[in-house]
Design a protein that fits this description.
This protein is an alpha/beta fold. It has three domains: 178 residues, no CATH class; 72 residues; 126 residues, CBS-domain, CATH 3.10.580. Helices cover 54% and strands 15% of the residues. It has a seven-stranded mixed β-sheet with strand order 8-7-6-5-11-10-9. A hairpin with a 2-residue loop joins strand 10 and strand 11. Its cofactor is Zn(2+). GO terms for molecular function: metal ion binding; metallopeptidase activity. It is found in: Membrane. One of its GO terms (biological process) is proteolysis.
Amino acid sequence: MTPEQEHVQPAAAQPARQPAPAPARSKGWVVGRVAGAPVVITPSWFLAAFVLTLLFAPNVQSAAPHLGAGVYVVAFAFVLLLFGSVFLHEAAHALVARARGQQVTELAVTLWGGHTAYTGGLARPFDGFIVAVVGPVTNLVLAAGFWLAYQAQPVLTVPTLLLYAAALSNAFVGVFNLLPGLPLDGGQILESAVWAVTGNRGRGTVVAGWAGRVVAVGVLVWAILWPYLEGRSPGLTTVLWSALLAAFLWSGAGAAIANGRRRAVVGGLSVASLAVPAVTVPLGATVAAATVAAETTGAGSGTMVVVTGADGVPLAVVDPDAAARVPAEAAVRTTVDAVAVPFVPGSAVDAGLSGQAMLARLAATSGGARLVPVTDGGRVTGVLDLTAVARALRGGR
């Protein structure tokens, strides 16, 4: 989840999976693989299983008092059913994400439920919608199946009780995750809708993030006010769990807002706007000839001089400071390769690149160099300084 960031979520609230670059795998035990990714049981899951077993045991006791200590076995069986449903929720996300061209990196079962992480970047609003909606839909289908099985039982038995609990818990997980705010799945659906309408994914992320903050406040308000509407005081355990859930949702929403703003900044970057113009001289030209070429272009004092091979391929960029230190009488016989810095082979970027595609290209081909050549239709038109790209990113953030 996704950068894209890793997110964990409550058992009743699996956040939308946000893509993340090369996320680290969660600590825990790998128990299998889904969509080519490891399924990890984290140590925190055991704490969640213990707490949920204790919380569910009184309900089992009231429904089946004859079980004695066996109520804890039944309660733990319910916990396994619940986390099994969470796993199917995450597996649905993973399988659809892979089908939409993403690389799934892990499925983890955690203290708060589970998360799925993938990389690759969603290309279209529909991709975000379908990856997000399939999780809650899986839970609602499970809820319907458990409910039908419960209705078919002639008497109330322990298995019947488990069917009833599984139906209600899956229904709650499915409906809760459809609430329209990040980091919930419903938030990713809202993000995709705004993205589809405006054509701006960053705007969709910011809108869904603010909606997520509204959901976070609503969860806490509901936990406190609902009991009063029923004529009773709110329970301390319910308020504490709701406060933790609200804090988690608020934090996830804030991260989504920051991510959306960064995405908007990235979307506004382009090679054309950041590159400086350049003129070309052939390999073997003199420093004097390069100086004259730069001064006669009319492109301004910031014009760079790029040395090209016989086939027009950019080979190096002239260091203006080094060229300026060459005495005038020596400049007419000193070749430009003496004052030029070689480009990384294959590092040229197209002048039409922008946004994430530009950053991906630079990351893949720049080889750590500061300067890369810019081409347009195979012709060298400029030089891009990667420190200018970094400044633009920092300024936007």
